[in-house]
Design goal:
single chain; 202 residues; mainly alpha; GMP Synthetase, Chain A, domain 3; three-stranded mixed β-sheet; 8 helices; globular
Length: 202
Amino acid sequence: MAEQPELPRLDDAAVEPRLARLDAVLGQLEQTPGRTAELALEAVELLTEVYGEALARVTDLADSPGALDRLTGDELLRHLLLLHRIHPDPVERRVARAIDDLRPQLRAQGADVALMGVRGEVARISLSARSCGGGGAAVRELVREQVLTFAPELSTVDVVAPEPAPALIPIATLWQRPDRTGAAALTEAGRAAGPAASGGRA
């Protein structure tokens, strides 16, 4: 039996423009009238369903944590798992991973991010800037795009400034009884009025 020729492999840098081109071609097909375009779109939908089921079975078979981590860590497989909505990780974990992946890039621009939480279809992200350009609109949009790439089922990504730290309490007040101020004031007033009240008697 003749050996099959080895197919060329695509790295992440080669996959990304192909995915972009696929989106563009599908967009053109959707705008093209006629039965031929309809059949092409139907073929793509059927292939998507079949490959989606195949990926779902792969994730079912890869039941060990290490195997699943390798599957979800691969950029192309992660994209397909998200496309078919069969990614095994919960949405909050995926958002946290998106933030972790983006953090080094933002820190180089004088900014930092933190996940505040995910509630329903809304994620709240804290974005703090240490420089003038670190918290601009472009950076906030970058954060939104990154999070939605990892969690496309979200409807909203709120990128907000961090909550201000609570005001510091002077340490002297921690050692002062609540009634001490009033009592001290009365004592001082009594001392000041003492000689006058006694009529100057020794």
